[in-house]
Amino acid sequence: MIVVSIVVCMGLLVYKPNKLTDCSNKISGIYNKTFEKYVVFYPQHQDDEVLWGGSAIIEAIRQNGSDNVYVVLVSDGSGVNVFKDKKYENLTRKEKECLRNHEFKAALTKLGVKESNTIILPQVDGKVGTHFDTMENVALEFEKKYKSVTHIAHSYKYDDHIMHVKNGEVIQNLYEQGKIKHALYFLKPTYLDNVNKDKRVIYITRDKNGHKAVKKACLEYQVKDENINRHGIGYTSAHSYFDKLLNDEYLTSVLHLPIEN
To answer: What is the mean pLDDT of residues 97-104?
Structure first.
């Protein structure tokens, strides 16, 4: 199957199936690269899935169907700065996690990810703290079961959040050891110039339905309605990232291929 990407370049539509695309007014890179048969996303925190991978998730579902796309949440998200506000001081860690997961699950629904394909690692291992060992085990289980898998984590090389870096290191270490065969990594726009264009993999919304889905997923993190236990935590904590994404007409997700250290 040939996957065709559509990029606006100097006012013209340019079709580049899995090819490096150079545009004067668009990010240069490999557009809408074909995934393996199964795709697993590993966002570290609630909201990372849409901020860095919303259009990639839409494209993965478009290529492979929702049955073959999984999202594995690695952290409980209870450490977000928003919870330092006095009104949250009496909440337990579990209650904070629940508030964040309400937003997360609502956003995934808008993106078209099946609830049965959503894995929340703190609920899997029942531990408090980090869950990187469990993340590694889950990745290996996916690889063993499905063979043809694209694993997508945070950048192990270019990110300003230490937990994101550690998240990416889990997948990169497995890749370097030959235990998984295909990996991609979320790349924040700040680090775009650190990665050569032939290593950038870019996903954009292809149609109105995809565009609406990503936008609606973003807006789920803005909902404030205490009657349904929604506090807009994601947007409050990362409003500048959300604003930048929502101002991008393509709702671009930039990833990168494995890069030699």
So the answer is: 98
